[in-house]
Amino acid sequence: MSALSVHQLARADVRALPLYSPDGIPGIVDLSDNTNLWGAPPAALRVLRDAPASALSRYPSLYSAELRAAIVRYVGLEPASAIDVVTGCGSDDILDSTMRAFGGQGERIAFSAPTFSMIPTLAGLNGLESVGIPFTRDFGIDAERLVDCGAKITYLCTPNNPTATAASRKAVEHVVTHAPGIVLLDEAYAEFAPETFVDLVGGNDRLIVARTFSKAFGLAGLRVGYGIGSYAITDLVARARGPYKVNSIAERAVLATLDATRDGLDWVREKVTLAIAHRARLADALAGLGFLVLPTAANFVLVPTRQAAELCGSLRARGVLVRALADLPRSLSVFEESEGRALRIGVGPWEMMQTLIDALADVLSCE
Ligand SMILES: *Cc1c(COP(=O)(O)O)cnc(C)c1O
After folding, report:
1. Cα 275 to ligand 1 centroid, rounded to whole Å
2. Under a CB-based contact definition with an 8 Å cutoff, are residues 262 and 333 in contact?
3. What is the pTM of this model?
């Protein structure tokens, strides 16, 4: 019928998309993806072990009603308020579905740059044009310029990946109040931050806050995320998302983890407290080795350095995996000096941090 190859039949923008390829290798100290390095909560592991056959043979709930109710309680919002939750296959699914629900072909999504690398990718898949506005010199959000973009969707990420820095309440409120379209606020690292902005959903029905069970909760492999917002916005995102996106086992495991028990929520909170203590210790140790470390409100640190790629390779040879970043905006003076390069390092149990510090000291002594 058609003489065109599959490749030629594909949309040009899809053909041009690279596959996501973080270079994970099993069996080494992997600090490259900001997951919970202590592992997974015992309450979730128990659910997986004891799952009944029906959890596999039957379909999951359509829109995770029980899980959504538990999330409303966890977040501390009034169940009776006009706020609801939409779940997804990871919070990537919430970001993607929000773009699909509101972003028409050729419309814009604006964000502070640099930010989560999935955003331009998901934007491209949804036919949206990405507009990156550099952070201000002290890693603040340039709220006025963002608003002036007049974008259909404004994406904010705080604490921000990959910088680990947190936005001020004033800047977030400015964007939420004045942005002309939808505001998508990504709080993937909320549990590690000094404050969250989820309370703002009460007064703004065009705001959706995306969260995940992949980072603090240690459940990245289960793929569960959620969005919090007005009935109107969560309903529309759920429609764009489609039914059956959270599988039965994942829903049960997250429900068990949200229980205020020693193996559930207490486990999560204990690891968060440790991560917060270790990130300060790690930042001190890195500063002691002569590195600049950006202020961190997340479970990782960003270290601008011209040697990012070389250090990443040398650490890898010593069994430690970190993420080397390049092409960070040089309009920020720290990245101007590092020629746009940096290392992103996850925070975990202290033995892992010590392994990293020892490996780094060894690399530096060989130079
Ligand atoms: C890790 C991450 C996510 C996505 O996590 P999921 O595993 O898809 O829930 C979303 N936003 C940011 C900023 C992240 O770093």
Report:
1. 18
2. no
3. 0.94
